[in-house]
């Protein structure tokens, strides 16, 4: 098979990636170059969950506003998205949102309970529950579109990364009704009621795909799909019960991706057995957690060509968040090690191997960015 | 290197494994034969967490008694251990206890909070905290010894499996002070304060080792070390910061193990990258979670000989607990598939790939045992 990507992405000429204006175009940014396997102006770095609880300015701004409310007030979501860029000089903003936001926008009763996570009023347990899920429309993403527009206007040539949960991780919350360790509910349903599972996953795939598309069309220059719980599955279950729907989500933006279009990062934790499948959903960049060395990730991808003939791809990751609270010399040595391990890949954007822990000292993150930018590229 | 096991285990002649009395000896039991890679009277099966919340007789007996109290009342711990054997006809009892029991017996303030898990009065965060840990003695295991004796007297030729948490998983609870998803505390400490980590892990290794030894000397015919959180580590971190202490724990019973002695099962979840290391701690059987196929586990072990020259070993596992609440035909097909996948290993004891979920219908477990025993062996 030949290259599956479209060569001329269907992005509007006013999109930051398409602009012919050095001050506003994101095409030459360190991040986009890194995602495209090119060496840009500096070594790119950003942090998953860089916007949020580790920042005092975030905690202050959020006072009196619930988590999901803050995602849906465009000015606030935009400001929160921008805070870590100002503070840390990271090479990208990641849109501040939550994986259950598409559910909320569709009218499903869901809240983020502090210290718990997303809790649904009514978990989805049966085919009947799935059939009652609301229809998804593009209109519902209006507050998202507005927040993205406000954000990219501020960011100039620094790219915004669009954010969405992958269908399995979203479905896991919907079936359990809350966070769980073992995800037994969705893992039972996929075998026990394959038709209900198919309809639920088709719905979450559409929700994730439309959510990403709305952000890109409003100005996001890259996108990342988060499949936090993919590592709870066997390879066979991932391949047959999850991967088709992740592809389906990505199909909503496939006319926008490709070598000159939107880079798409696909991230999960505990994915060492399914790295090639993560790539073969249509991702252009594989995000890796802290458990597996990047040189080993690169080797495995090289040895398992996909149906489109692709082998290695640019990687993103994988500084261990546990080391953010270690002494500086321990952390610095680790960051240098991650850079060395990523050198074999055809592109490497530095990030954590999981989200910023809420207790992280933000000055440490700033120092990590400075270190990464100071290292010869 | 040649066989590391002692050939004549230092078990008392009155130990159930050493008895020359068909009605009381466990040596010819299906479980011990399976663990030794021999085909016994029937296909052996037991379930992790078979004793406990899934059984109404357990919930009734425990009424008004806290979890840790129930572990330390010998008659109650013994009765709880025996309940699933009577009900399900499983091929082994697993000693009913908790991984924090050695801490409790040593005088550390710890309770199991319902719906949360183990919570310590004072988490262990520094070298000073570690230095204040109490001394471990054999006397402290008296209630355990008594409970095991009561249990094996009832079990006759059916073996009791001794139970202990592995040093890392125990240390993770001690440092966090409670269950956590990412185990950031212990994972920071191992890099940031290696001396404190060494002393903490040496302490937990001694606690786990003595705990197992007490159970074996009182009559347990096999032992299982549970390293539930081992999968949260990179291979390098496991190998350098955890494995030496798991070996140290096992060294407390190495004179009791070996081809004619106590089989030692070593189990963890998410261990696909460290299967050989799990084996090379000195385990005779590798317990596998539901994520990786047993034929693939066997292949990986075959390809990575240990320093003692061993390659494949008998396996235990790995029915997906999520399928216990599926329709019977789905579950039956899965059980048959697990049996087929385990056929290549030099021994296979059926089990779940993780503990029995508390909501499991116990009649399903009984039916799974009947199915496994009915399949040609």
TrEMBL record, chains A, B:
Chief localisation class: cytoplasm
Family matches, as PROSITE patterns: UROD_1, UROD_2
GO biological process: protoporphyrinogen IX biosynthetic process
CC per GO annotation: cytosol
Record CDD domains: URO-D
Residues given in the record as substrate binding sites: 49-53, 98, 173, 228, 354
Pathway the protein acts in: Porphyrin-containing compound metabolism; protoporphyrin-IX biosynthesis; coproporphyrinogen-III from 5-aminolevulinate: step 4/4
Cellular compartments annotated: Cytoplasm
Gene Ontology MF terms: uroporphyrinogen decarboxylase activity
Residues of the site described as Transition state stabilizer: 98
EC identifiers of the protein: 4.1.1.37
Known catalytic reactions: uroporphyrinogen III + 4 H(+) = coproporphyrinogen III + 4 CO2
Keyword Cytoplasm attached: yes
A Pfam entry, by short name: URO-D
Keyword tags: Cytoplasm, Decarboxylase, Lyase, Porphyrin biosynthesis
Residue span(s) of domain Uroporphyrinogen decarboxylase (URO-D): 44-53, 161-177
Subunit composition and interactions: Homodimer.
Similarity annotation: Belongs to the uroporphyrinogen decarboxylase family.
Protein purpose: Catalyzes the decarboxylation of four acetate groups of uroporphyrinogen-III to yield coproporphyrinogen-III.
Name under which the protein is recorded: Uroporphyrinogen decarboxylase
């Amino acid at each position: 098979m030949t290259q599956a990507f479209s060569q001329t992405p269907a992005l509007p000429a006013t999109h930051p990636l398409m602009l012919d204006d050095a001050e506003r175009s994101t095409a030459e940014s360190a991040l986009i170059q890194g995602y495209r396997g090119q060496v840009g102006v500096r070594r790119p770095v950003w942090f998953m969950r860089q916007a949020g609880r580790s920042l005092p300015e975030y905690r202050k701004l959020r006072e009196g506003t619930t988590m999901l409310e803050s995602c849906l007030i465009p000015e606030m979501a935009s400001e929160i998205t921008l805070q870590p860029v100002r503070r840390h000089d990271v090479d990208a903003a990641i849109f501040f949102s939550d994986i259950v936001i598409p559910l909320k926008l569709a009218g499903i009763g869901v809240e983020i309970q502090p210290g718990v996570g997303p809790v649904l009023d009514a978990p989805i347990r049966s085919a009947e529950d799935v059939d009652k899920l609301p229809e998804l429309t593009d209109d519902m993403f209006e507050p998202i579109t507005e927040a993205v527009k406000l954000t990219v206007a501020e960011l100039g040539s620094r790219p915004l990364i669009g954010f969405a949960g992958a269908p399995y991780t979203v479905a896991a919350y919907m079936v359990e009704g809350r966070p769980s360790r073992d995800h037994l509910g969705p893992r039972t349903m996929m075998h026990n009621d394959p038709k209900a599972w198919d309809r639920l996953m088709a719905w979450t795939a559409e929700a994730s795909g439309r959510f990403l598309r709305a952000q890109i069309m409003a100005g996001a220059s890259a996108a990342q799909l988060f499949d936090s719980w993919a590592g709870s599955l066997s390879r066979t279950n991932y391949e047959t019960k999850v991967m088709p729907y992740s592809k389906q989500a990505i199909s909503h933006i496939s006319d926008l991706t490709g070598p000159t279009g939107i880079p798409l990062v696909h991230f999960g934790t505990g994915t060492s057995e399914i790295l090639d499948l993560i790539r073969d959903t249509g991702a252009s960049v594989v995000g890796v957690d802290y458990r597996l060395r990047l040189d080993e990730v690169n080797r495995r991808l090289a040895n398992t060509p996909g149906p489109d003939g692709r082998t290695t791809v640019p990687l993103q990751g994988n500084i261990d968040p546990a080391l953010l609270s270690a002494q500086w010399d321990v952390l610095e040595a680790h960051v240098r090690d991650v850079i060395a391990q990523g050198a074999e890949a055809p592109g490497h954007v530095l990030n954590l191997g999981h989200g910023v822990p809420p207790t992280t000292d933000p000055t440490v993150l700033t120092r990590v960015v400075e270190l990464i930018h100071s290292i010869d590229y």
